[in-house]
Amino acid sequence: MACLFVEQLTVLDFSRLDRERGLVGESWIVDLELEGELDPQSMVLDFGEVKRVARDAVEEFADHKLLVPGDCGWLEIEVARGSGEVRIEAPAAGLRLRSPGEAVCRLEARAVTMPVLRRCLEDCVAALMPPNVSAVRIALREEEAPGAYYHYSHGLKRHAGNCQRIAHGHRSRLEVYADGLRNDHWERYWADRWRDVYLASEEDLVAETTLGDRPAWRFAYRSGQGEFELELWAERCEQVPADTTVECLADHIAAELARLSPGTAFRVRAYEGVNKGAVASAGGD
């Protein structure tokens, strides 16, 4: 038997629903191994096919979706006949959701964890492999990088692709430079402020409500994939004045820092998941 591997086949950016933390934005790196007999090309599988078939399969399964634990006992999931629209009631986690079905992934598990998702992805990829491939192994991991980071969820209604889904997210690093020097204090400030946060555009707020016994905010919009509505405990949200693209978030962070520390020149490198992001500057006048 031979074995090939692909490190960082892709990065899955998604949100998962957790009873204690609510919506948790994640960016999990996918590593792949395929074991089997050599084909007529003396390969287990051509790398071009690995990227096309395996990468597309794992992204279609989980990327830019809300992953929910279907066997947890503390949420209710209803799928509408015909339209496939999904409604989720999870008062214990401070959430209500109405969404097109393609934006939600139900895992038959008590919690959404790396081992649970790994097994699902292995089955998904194995079903598409040629007969000579006898084993599929997937590893999931978080980015290992120094410095502060936060988990956030959001939706981009103007996006033409899957970012328009109202509850997907990222685990993101942040670099803050104050007067040219890396500043750990302000990086930790944002990591604390945006820990497990839902970031919403102010224009998407449609109602102030209560969910259980706590104040809640309801956000809604229509985009290319359909109608989206999300209601969350207000304490787990932050509204921002523009869209929640990483470019706008970097500008927002820099402007907030300039307000909090007048006279200091700030430069911000805000990440959206792994190895991508935006830069913004403010202050110093």
The CATH topology of the largest domain turns out to be: Tetrahydropterin Synthase, Chain A
Query: Helical segment tally?
Result: 4
Radius of gyration: 21 Å
- Succession of helices and strands: EEHEEEEEHEEEEHEEEEEHEE
Low-confidence stretches: none
Secondary-structure blueprint of this entry?
Elements: E1 2-18, E2 22-36, H1 47-62, E3 66-69, E4 76-79, E5 86-90, E6 95-99, E7 104-107, H2 114-126, E8 133-141, E9 149-154, E10 168-178, E11 181-182, H3 184-193, E12 197-201, E13 205-211, E14 214-223, E15 226-233, E16 237-240, H4 246-260, E17 265-271, E18 277-283
Parallel strand pairs: 1-3, 3-7, 9-12, 12-16
Antiparallel strand pairs: 1-2, 2-8, 4-5, 5-6, 6-15, 9-10, 10-11, 10-17, 13-14, 14-15, 17-18
How would you describe this protein?
The protein is of the alpha+beta class and 285 residues long. It folds into two domains: 2-141, 2-Layer Sandwich (Tetrahydropterin Synthase, Chain A), CATH 3.30.479; 149-203 and 239-283, no CATH class. Helix content is 19%, strand content 46%. It contains four helices and 18 strands. The chain has helices at 47-62, 114-126, 184-193, 246-260, and strands spanning 2-18, 22-36, 66-69, 76-79, 86-90, 95-99, 104-107, 133-141, 149-154, 168-178, 181-182, 197-201, 205-211, 214-223, 226-233, 237-240, 265-271, 277-283. The strands form three sheets. Strands 9, 10, 11, 12, 16, 17 and 18 form a seven-stranded mixed β-sheet that branches. A six-stranded antiparallel β-sheet has the order 4-5-6-15-14-13, with no helix packed on it. A five-stranded mixed β-sheet has the order 7-3-1-2-8. The longest helix has 16 residues, at 47-62. The model has no long low-confidence stretch (mean pLDDT 97).
